[in-house]
Amino acid sequence: MIYLDNAATTKPDENCLKLAEKYLYTDFYNPSALYAEGYGVQLALKEARKNILKTIADCERFDLIFTSCGTEADNHALFCGGKRGNVITTEGEHSAVISCVNELKQRGIEVRFARLNGDGSVNFEHLLSLVDEKTSLVSVIHVGNETGAINDILKISAAIKSKNKYTLFHSDGVQAFGKIPFRMSENIDLYSVSAHKIGGIKGCGALFKRKNLVLKPHVYGGGQENGYRSGTENIFGIKNFEFAAHRKYSEIKENFDKVKKLSDTMWERLDKSLFVRISGENCSPYILTVGASGVRGETIMHDANDLGLIVGNGSACASNEKKRYSRTILACGVNESLADGILRLSFSFENTIEEVVAAAEILNKAVKYRKDMMA
Q: How many whole angstroms separate alpha carbon 30 and alpha carbon 163?
């Protein structure tokens, strides 16, 4: 079976699992415990925090809050940062952010949405025009989870701070972390990441936080994570995350170049009479979104699955919304006929050219079969 749905989740890295294994079987102690074994695990937790932090941030200027997932990190940022005035986000956010701002709206916060460009990136001028003296928080996804569009959050955050220095800036970095070379700037206050998108296990994420930023807890209890997120820490998941992040960042340029070749090969091999490219040329190579007009994406996905290929037809999380058309794809200006036939092909450095060539043949065959049936 060929797996090309890595934006939904990645296969756990076996070497990273083995390195973290002792935190399941031998060093399983509670890091809050006062005996020596617990203190030893606490030191391992501190080491993981420092090592993940330094992949993209200055440890003197940023802190890290471990969470259960990227969604929880987004929730923490949105609900604790957007408490007054208005909150601004884009029409291309992950459902973890969209659901939060919809809830904020129910709580009396004004929510403003910035329009998208055709490739799924945010319209910079429109976004900036929405910021005013009452804007408490702006949240802009770093890499779009449906099209792979890359937003220049360094430029965006600097422009927002220039307009209102008190506005907090958050970015969902789940599809960027470990894949796109990037360093946090002083204009970014909060940044969400997830382990299972980079070869870690499910159940572990983190929120990068500017150190002098006052942020209330989102989960209350025993005061773990320096009081920001209560609950006994998932040491196995956190150490596994640490090892996965280290591997990704030690090979980030090599992996980026390899995945770009995979993505380019896929688009070269797809039949242009059947498929339209949605992802822009400057989008993340890890995600290639295409559309087949007149054929439902879900139908193509199931046909491809029967032929030995696993692909997505949009955000895996959004599938629970049970909506026929993706709000993000429609916001890109795609018509409903094409939006109905969306496929998201997402790659890993573990994929091969041979797999991509075979996958393109399967997709061409599946769509042509459906088109011929309707002819």
A: 45
- The runs of H, that is alpha helices, within the chain are 14-20, 22-25, 36-56, 70-81, 95-106, 124-130, 153-163, 235-250, 252-269, 297-306, 327-331, 336-339, 353-374
**Strand 190-194 vs strand 205-210: parallel, antiparallel, or unpaired?**
antiparallel
Looking at the whole model, is its pTM more than 0.85? Answer: yes
The secondary structure of 222-255 as a DSSP string is S-TGGGTB-S---HHHHHHHHHHHHHHHHSHHHH
Residue 191, H or E segment: strand 190-194
pLDDT tier, 367 (very low <50, low <70, confident <90, very high otherwise) = very high
Buried b (16+ CB within 10 A) or exposed e, 13-47: beebbebbeebeeebebebeeeeeeeeebbebbee
> Residue holding tokens 């692909």?
311
Q: Kindly give, in sequence order, each residue whose CB lies less than 8 Å from that of residue 181, ignoring residues fewer than 6 positions away.
A: 252, 253, 256
Query: Could you tell me how far CA 227 lies from the centroid of its own chain?
Result: 25
- One DSSP character per residue, 310-345 reads EEBSS-TGGGGG--SS-HHHHHTT--HHHHTTEEEE
Q: 69, 80, 283, 317: which is the annotated catalytic residue? A: 317
pLDDT tens per residue, range 216-239? 998 999 999 999 999 999 999 999
297-306 helix and 353-374 helix, angle to the nearest 10 degrees: 120
Res. 246 pLDDT band, cuts 50 70 90 = very high
| CA atoms within a 13 Å half-sphere pointing along the CA-CB vector of 22 | 6
**317 catalytic residue (yes or no):** yes
* DSSP state letter for 219: B
pLDDT in tens, 53-103: 999 999 999 999 999 999 999 999 999 999 899 999 999 999 999 999 999
pLDDT digits (tens, 9 = 90+) for 162-200: 999 999 999 999 999 999 999 999 999 999 999 999 999
